[in-house]
């Protein structure tokens, strides 16, 4: 890996295009290096993972709305290309709108993969737009693998090098460029075209973090899918010769100078050298539980502490307080450090509750587990004993947990917490967990078997067993797949018929 220093440059400064971060990323995207076998295997796992959470969310209102909007943009038979597929249904549709629908379905339950470093990310968000373009262009599985490998590589390395949330910029600002780069790889575009597409994608996908603050709405699911749609359109324009603002990161009125810290800040972004294989997907991890990633280990910790309390003959009604000692990120994003009263409100939206570690820990401690639907049900959130316990929970930042969160040593990097439970009689029970059970270093790391099991669990009653088997056989043969429409999972007609209609919109 080569570490590239990125800083603001004055307009009058001699700054050749080859030194622009967008150009360096474009060079990585255009590199014809082979994809390692282990990267390919993990890409297959993540396509399965995305399909799992997409079918599980197919009946939810935000996903239904996105699907109906996309279906209003069918692929025109007389136009070039094949069109793309929408999760759950038959037919071919305009690729950018299919990407919006599928990306929303993947993101809705907050249940797919994650990578956390200087910034947050869900790099599986790269897959829907890259796959939509691959289907539209009639590409094969090998081309798709190459595109996805690049998407992960670029997003993960931007996340390692550039913090966005510190300056209240939403993390999808790293996604637009990574999708554009991945599509560029897949279409075998030249460096100059990819460079322009990356610049346009960043310029059009920068937004504030308010989508993940306070009363969190369904836009949280749309934000990455919208970024993917914008990236597709950016590539299309760049292929037609249209340019982008430049230098997009380093310009005097550019991203670093005005959206991030200041013209004085220098960022360091690692990127593969020429001929270096793309392995960044191997640094990422998925979720066993449908909740924000920094709550994954606390959910498993609560599950373990429930057993501890039962063995000690203790009941949650006798708890005086619970303090979760954790990282800066967890405390300020999903903990009491966020100062969001909505995180303590039993009538808050699902999107808000899955960003409240206080609510999540209370339910997981009471139930000894987590369910992607039941744990968020209004009647569950309004249970009096749950509300009482929930409001006894607080978080504090522990410098050691923050240090481990940012550690570059994978054996030390952690996203967990220490829970200190104090009872009304003064008794204290505490325990800690560094990584979730499903993490590569956890008690039960996810491998192909676990990804398939997750798919079967979430698809049950929604996708026929025959369709489940067809999809799993196709995706596991991805390297030899010539028809990428086989990666679309259709839900049963009965399930589709049971989904409530959404209000009419413009389309």
From TrEMBL:
The keyword Zinc-finger does not apply. Residues 289-479 form the MmgE/PrpD C-terminal domain. Transmembrane segments: none annotated. It catalyses: (2S,3S)-2-methylcitrate = 2-methyl-cis-aconitate + H2O. It is an enzyme of class 4 (lyase). Monomer. PANTHER family: 2-METHYLCITRATE DEHYDRATASE, 2-METHYLCITRATE DEHYDRATASE-RELATED. NCBIfam families: PrpD_hiGCgrampos. This is 2-methylcitrate dehydratase. It comes from Corynebacterium lizhenjunii. The lineage of its organism: Bacteria, Bacillati, Actinomycetota, Actinomycetes, Mycobacteriales.
